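From the methods appendix. Each design record in this collection lists the discretized structure first, followed by the designed amino acid sequence. Records were kept in a plain field format so they could be parsed without special tools. The example shown here is representative of the layout used throughout.

RECORD:
C-ALPHA CELLS (719 positions):
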C-alpha cells in the first residue's frame, strides 16, 4: 500500500467526517435556538401522575410528545360549559383557580373531547376555596376493622351511602383517572406570564374573545405505566433485563425507637406504643404538605419522646418501656402499619430471632403491647388559650372487660393530665347508646385486625374531620394557622403552644400509667421552642438549622449525589413514593428521634457505627457541634413494603393488603407559546412540501442539462 495515498485518503476522510459532524450538529443547535424563541418554559414540576392498585389505575397522563391546546381561563362554571360545548378554538387547555377546581368541574371536563389538559393556578397570594379534599369520605375504610366484609355491627357506619362519614367534603378525585395532564402552578412569575399572554392574545380588555394567533400551552407528563399494579409490575419484571421500568411499589420506611433499649426476651404487656402517621398526599408531584394530616402528629410525638427521655430510669424501675413509631404510607390503605403487623405475625419484627447474636434487638410482637396511643390530626383548634382534643377507643374491643378497664384508665389519665396543662380531653361516644364511637381512620385499626389490644386515638375532631383540606395541596401552614416567616415563628403563633399543651398531656398520662406515680412531670419537660422549630422546618422551610444538623453521615453522602439541592426554602414533602424516591425526610426524622431518645458518646466518625440488628444504634451527625457528634440511641428504620409484593402468587384483587404502585415517567414540563390558525399551519406545511418538491425538480432538471448549462472553459494556451 502506498503510504502517500493512504495519508491522502485519511486526510479526505477526516474532512468528510468534520463536514458530516457540522451538518449534523447545525440543525440540532439551530432547532434548539428556534424552540427557545417559540416557547417560554413555565414551572412544570407539579404534575398529576399515575398510580395503580390491584384492580385499576388513577391519576393523569399526557400523550408521548405532550398535549397542546389553546389556553382558556374561565370565570365561572357557565364559561366552562360554553367552551366545552361551543368553543371555536378547541381543543383547550383550561386555566383554573382553586375555587373552580372542583369535582363538578373536573367531571364535566373529564370526558370532554374538547379538553387537552388543565393548569391549576395557586400562587401564595391566591384566595383559598372553602374546602378541597381529593380522597374519599371514608379514607381506607375497606382496609380497616369496620369494612363491609366485617361481621361487626359497625360495618356500615361509614360507607358511600352512609350519613356518617369522617371526611364529608371528600371528592375522591385522587382516585379518578384522567386521560389528559393536570399541572399545579405555584410560581408567581409563571402564573403572571400565562395570564398576561392570555389577556394580550386571547381576550381583550372588554372581555371579547380574539382570533388567531392565540396563547397556547404544551403540557408534557407522559406516564409509562398502565392498567393496574399486577400488569404493570409484570411488565417491569419482563423487561428488567434491558433496564425498562414501568412502575414500582409505593414504599418508604417506618421509624421506630424505644425509650430504653430492648434487649433479650420481653415480658407481655411491658411496652407502651406511642404512634403517629408520617405521610400525606395530594394530586400533584412535589407537593404534599400534610400540615394537619400528618405534621402535627409527628411533631407532637417527637416532643413527647424528648420529654420522656428525661425519665428513663423511672420507666426502667417500673419494668415498662415506650416504643415510638412513625408509620409511612398510611395514606395508601395503611401501608406502613400493614407491613409492620405482617412482620410481627411472622415473628420477624424488627428481625428474625438469632440465638447467636447476643446484642440483637428484642423480637417484638402483639402480646408485648400494654396499650397503644395514636396521635392523629391535632392542629385545628377553636380557642387560643385552651386546647380541645377528642379521645376514641374501639367499641368492639371494649366488649372485653380487661380491655375496657385499661381503656378507661387511659381516658382517666388523659383527662387528669389535661387538667394540669389546660387541655380539655373528651371521649367520643355514640349519642344514642353512649358507647364508644368507632375509631376514625387510624393505624390502630390495623393492629386490632391481628390482636385485641387496648388503645386510644387522639384527634382534633369529633365525629367528622375539622380539616377541610385533608390530603390536599392546601393542607399547609395556613390551614393550621401557623404564624411565621420563612425563617422564624411569630411570637403571636398559637399552634406551637397548642401542641406543647397536648404533648405535655400525653407525656404526663403515659408517665403516670407506666410508673403508677402521681408526680407531675416538669412543666418544661416538653420543649416549647423545639415544637416551634420543628413546625417551622416541616411546614415552611426544610433548609432550617435543625434539619441540617440532623443529617447523618451516610445521608450526607446521598444528598451530595442527589439530582437537585434538597435543602431549599420550601415545605417538607410528606409523600411516600417508590423506594429511594422521597426518603431523605424519613432519614432526617430518624436522626431527630435518635437524638431526642439518645445520648452523645465520645466517638469519632470512624468509630461511631453499629450492626443494624443491635439493640443500640450508633450514628454520626457531621453538622452537629464543632467536629460532629456521635449519638448512641435506639431508633431504626423498618421497610414499609406491602406484603402483597412479598407473598408469592398473591391475589392482587383480594383486598387483603395494599397493592399501590406509582408510574415511572421521564420528564414533566409546561411550555407557553403563540399558536397560529389551523389554516396558516396547513399553509406552512404545504408550502414547505411544495418548496422541497420544487427544489428536487430543479436539481434534477439542472443535472440533466449540465452539459449545456455549465460549458467547460478551454484550457489556457501555453506560452
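DESIGN:
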Amino acid at each position: 500500500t502506498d503510504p502517500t495515498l493512504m495519508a491522502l485518503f485519511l486526510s479526505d476522510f477526516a474532512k468528510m467526517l468534520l463536514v458530516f459532524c457540522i451538518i449534523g450538529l447545525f440543525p440540532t443547535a439551530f432547532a434548539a435556538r428556534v424552540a427557545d424563541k417559540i416557547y417560554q418554559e413555565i414551572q412544570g414540576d407539579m404534575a398529576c401522575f399515575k398510580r395503580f392498585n390491584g384492580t385499576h389505575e388513577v391519576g393523569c397522563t399526557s400523550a408521548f410528545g405532550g398535549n397542546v391546546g389553546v389556553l382558556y381561563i374561565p370565570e365561572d362554571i357557565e364559561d366552562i360549559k360554553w367552551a366545552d360545548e361551543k368553543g371555536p378554538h378547541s381543543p383547550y387547555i383550561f386555566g383554573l383557580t382553586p375555587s373552580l377546581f372542583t369535582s363538578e368541574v373536573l367531571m364535566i371536563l373529564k370526558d370532554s373531547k374538547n379538553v387537552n389538559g388543565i393548569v391549576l393556578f395557586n400562587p401564595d397570594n391566591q384566595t383559598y376555596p372553602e374546602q378541597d379534599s381529593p380522597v374519599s369520605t371514608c379514607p381506607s375504610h375497606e382496609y380497616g376493622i369496620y369494612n363491609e366484609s366485617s361481621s361487626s355491627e359497625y360495618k356500615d357506619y361509614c360507607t358511600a351511602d352512609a350519613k356518617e362519614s369522617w371526611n364529608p367534603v371528600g371528592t375522591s378525585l385522587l382516585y379518578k383517572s384522567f386521560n389528559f395532564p393536570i399541572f399545579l402552578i405555584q410560581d408567581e412569575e409563571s402564573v403572571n406570564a400565562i395570564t398576561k399572554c392570555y389577556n394580550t392574545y386571547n381576550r381583550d380588555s372588554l372581555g371579547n374573545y380574539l382570533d388567531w394567533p392565540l396563547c397556547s400551552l404544551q403540557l408534557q407528563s407522559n406516564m409509562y405505566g398502565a392498567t393496574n399494579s399486577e400488569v404493570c409490575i409484570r411488565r417491569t419484571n419482563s423487561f428488567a433485563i434491558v433496564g425498562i421500568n414501568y412502575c414500582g411499589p409505593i414504599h418508604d420506611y417506618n421509624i421506630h425507637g424505644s425509650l430504653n433499649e430492648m434487649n433479650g426476651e420481653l415480658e407481655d404487656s411491658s411496652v407502651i406504643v406511642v404512634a403517629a402517621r408520617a405521610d400525606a398526599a395530594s394530586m400533584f408531584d412535589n407537593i404534599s404538605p400534610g400540615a394537619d394530616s400528618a405534621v402535627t402528629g409527628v411533631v407532637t410525638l417527637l416532643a413527647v419522646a424528648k420529654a420522656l427521655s428525661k425519665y428513663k430510669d423511672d420507666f426502667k424501675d417500673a419494668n415498662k418501656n415506650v416504643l415510638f413509631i412513625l408509620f409511612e404510607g398510611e395514606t395508601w390503605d395503611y401501608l406502613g402499619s400493614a407491613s409492620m403487623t405482617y412482620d410481627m405475625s411472622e415473628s420477624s419484627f424488627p428481625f428474625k430471632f438469632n440465638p447467636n447474636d447476643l446484642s440483637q434487638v428484642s423480637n417484638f410482637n402483639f402480646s408485648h403491647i400494654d396499650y397503644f396511643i395514636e396521635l392523629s390530626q391535632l392542629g385545628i383548634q377553636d380557642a387560643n388559650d385552651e386546647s380541645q382534643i377528642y379521645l376514641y377507643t374501639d367499641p368492639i374491643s371494649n366488649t372485653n372487660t380487661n380491655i375496657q378497664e385499661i381503656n378507661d384508665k387511659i381516658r382517666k389519665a388523659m383527662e387528669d393530665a389535661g387538667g394540669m396543662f389546660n387541655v380539655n380531653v373528651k371521649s367520643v361516644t355514640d349519642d344514642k347508646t353512649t358507647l364508644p364511637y368507632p375509631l376514625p381512620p387510624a393505624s390502630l385499626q390495623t393492629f386490632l385486625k391481628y390482636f385485641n389490644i387496648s388503645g386510644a386515638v387522639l384527634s382534633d375532631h369529633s365525629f367528622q374531620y375539622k380539616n377541610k383540606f385533608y390530603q390536599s395541596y392546601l393542607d399547609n401552614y395556613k390551614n393550621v394557622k401557623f404564624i411565621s416567616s420563612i425563617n422564624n415563628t411569630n411570637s403571636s403563633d398559637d399552634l406551637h403552644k397548642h401542641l406543647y399543651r397536648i404533648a405535655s398531656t400525653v407525656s404526663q398520662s403515659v408517665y403516670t400509667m407506666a410508673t403508677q406515680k402521681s408526680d407531675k412531670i416538669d412543666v418544661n419537660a416538653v420543649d416549647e421552642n423545639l415544637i416551634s422549630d420543628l413546625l417551622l422546618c416541616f411546614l415552611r422551610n426544610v433548609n432550617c438549622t435543625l434539619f441540617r444538623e440532623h443529617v447523618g453521615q451516610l445521608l450526607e453522602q446521598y444528598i451530595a449525589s442527589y439530582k437537585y439541592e434538597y435543602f431549599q426554602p420550601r415545605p417538607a414533602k410528606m409523600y411516600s413514593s417508590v423506594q429511594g424516591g422521597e426518603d431523605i425526610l424519613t432519614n432526617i426524622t430518624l436522626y431527630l428521634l435518635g437524638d431526642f431518645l439518645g445520648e452523645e458518646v465520645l466517638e469519632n466518625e470512624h468509630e461511631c457505627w453499629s450492626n443494624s440488628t443491635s439493640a443500640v444504634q450508633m450514628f454520626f451527625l457531621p453538622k452537629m457541634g464543632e467536629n460532629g457528634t456521635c449519638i448512641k440511641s435506639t431508633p431504626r428504620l423498618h421497610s414499609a413494603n406491602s406484603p402483597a409484593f412479598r407473598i408469592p402468587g398473591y391475589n392482587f384483587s383480594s383486598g387483603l393488603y395494599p397493592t399501590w404502585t406509582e408510574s415511572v415517567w421521564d420528564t414533566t414540563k409546561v411550555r407557553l407559546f403563540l399558536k397560529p390558525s389551523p389554516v396558516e399551519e396547513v399553509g406552512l406545511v404545504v408550502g414547505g412540501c411544495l418548496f422541497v418538491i420544487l427544489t428536487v425538480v430543479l436539481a434534477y432538471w439542472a443535472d440533466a442539462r449540465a452539459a449545456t448549462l455549465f460549458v467547460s472553459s478551454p484550457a489556457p494556451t501555453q506560452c
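APPENDIX NOTE: The CA atoms of residues 73 and 95 lie 5 Å apart.
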